[in-house]
Amino acid sequence: MIKKEINKVTVIGTGFVGSTTAYTLMLNGLFSEMVLIDLNTTKAKGEEMDLNHGLPFARPVKIYQGTYSDSKDSDLVIITAGANQKEGETRLDLVHKNTAVFKDIVSQVVKYNDPDKCILLVVTNPVDILTYVTWKVSGFPINRVLGSGTVLDTARFKYLIGEHAGVDSRNVHGYILGEHGDTELPAWSLTNIAGMSLDSYCSYCNKCSDSQNMDKIFNEVKNSAYRIIEAKGATYYAVALAVERIAEAIMRNEHSILTVSSVLQGQYGISDVAISVPTIVDRNGINHILDVPLSEEERQLLSKSAHTLKEILKELKL
């Protein structure tokens, strides 16, 4: 009898982001087994039932509510649990509350999972700080711990440029780098449409008279989460799709370049802090962190972003 390979994912936290992530993964068909874990077991059970009732319209996957022991032998553990960002609150305001939560979660996860097989994907904010906390607490290899980082910010960036320029956002190429938060930065020097620099394209389409539109686009990217939270209380659709995209790159061994958050080891002159830069992602997690040719101003802003995060890490005394 042929033994089928089981691709298993554990989603920790079944709030807005966790449940929506589980839904996108169910539709994608990446995994044959999915475990849902939450302190609120009733909520997790409800999500299990709701997802399972949709399976006749999707691909077969075993979905169940469980405990940390049920996460055993996961290929991917996605952590979305923690306090939510409230209106008027920055992502970094969450740091102390969620660091305490993560120390408990990660210590439970590592009891049941092989560091040479399992990959830990952090989504909870502040994601860069908590990615570093997860790496420190787990003892996992540095390449097998990553955060969702600025993958969503980069998608917002591409969407807004595409809307402004009147082109499909999938034909816009560029990155938001640094902290997933207030010190993030746009890599304008690398941004292009159809291989044309933005300056070249703007001259071609004649929609931009000066740099004000660029500043407006970036500020909209940076403040999008605050605006969405103010309007509807939480962000979850787009972030769930970003998490699904990262999971896809991992499980399909795609070697995709994504701006995930991971611990740098000298790239860009930055070490011992998790931050987002273009990174090759594959079945082993972080395959290679790319040291892309940024402008001098962009490098300085990236260093400033890293310094901000390091100052916060000092307070945690990990």
How would you characterize this protein structure?
With about 325 residues, the chain is an alpha/beta fold. It has two domains: about 10-145, NAD(P)-binding Rossmann-like Domain (Rossmann fold, 3-Layer(aba) Sandwich); about 150-315, L-2-Hydroxyisocaproate Dehydrogenase, Chain A, domain 2 (Alpha-Beta Complex). Helices cover about 40% and strands about 20% of the residues. It contains nine helices and 16 strands. The protein has helices at about 15-30, 40-50, 95-110, 125-140, 150-165, 200-205, 210-230, 235-250, 295-315; strands at about 10, 35, 60-65, 75-80, 120, 145, 170-175, 175, 185, 190-195, 195, 255-260, 260-265, 270-275, 280, 285-290. The strands form five sheets. Strands 3-2-1-4-5-6 form a six-stranded parallel beta sheet, sandwiched between helices. Strand 8 (about 175) and strand 9 form a beta hairpin. Helix 3 (about 95-110) runs parallel beside helix 4 and helix 5 (about 150-165) crosses helix 7. The longest helix has 21 residues, at about 210-230. The chain is globular. The termini are far apart.
Which short descriptors sum up this protein?
three-stranded antiparallel β-sheet; Rossmann fold; 2 domains; 16 strands; six-stranded parallel β-sheet; 318 residues; L-2-Hydroxyisocaproate Dehydrogenase, Chain A, domain 2; alpha/beta; single chain
As for the CATH topology of the largest domain, it is L-2-Hydroxyisocaproate Dehydrogenase, Chain A, domain 2
Q: Characterize the biggest β-sheet.
A: 6 strands, parallel
Poorly predicted parts: none
Give the percentage of residues in beta strands: 15-25%
Number of domains: 2
Number of strands: 16
Shape-level CATH architecture of the largest domain: Alpha-Beta Complex
How are the strands of the biggest sheet laid out side by side? 3-2-1-4-5-6
Roughly what percent helix? 40-55%
Please identify the structural class as seen in this structure.
alpha/beta
